[in-house]
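Help needed: design a sequence for this.
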């Protein structure tokens, strides 16, 4: 960096902070996509939970929640609810 850059003094004085900033660059599109997927996953788990509590058969929960059988069984186990086959 040449001496005519006005930010040079700041960058040199805060090298470690600037380095961390560059290493952890914020990718807004990626963050929004991850937040969206987290919301979708949470909604599917809540749907499966409600369906388990209503004694809905496993195959129906799989179809509508789009969760795997193992994921549904894990939710049921956590809630101590029997899975209706």
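Sure. Designed sequence:
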């Amino acid at each position: 960096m040449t001496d005519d850059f006005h930010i040079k003094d700041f960058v040199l004085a805060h090298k470690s902070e600037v380095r961390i900033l560059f290493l952890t660059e914020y990718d807004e599109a990626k963050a929004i996509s991850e937040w969206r997927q987290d919301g979708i996953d949470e909604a599917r788990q809540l749907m499966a939970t409600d369906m388990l509590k209503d004694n809905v058969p496993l195959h129906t929960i799989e179809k509508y929640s789009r969760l795997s059988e193992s994921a549904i069984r894990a939710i049921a186990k956590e809630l101590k609810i029997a899975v209706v086959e």
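The chain has a mean pLDDT of 91.
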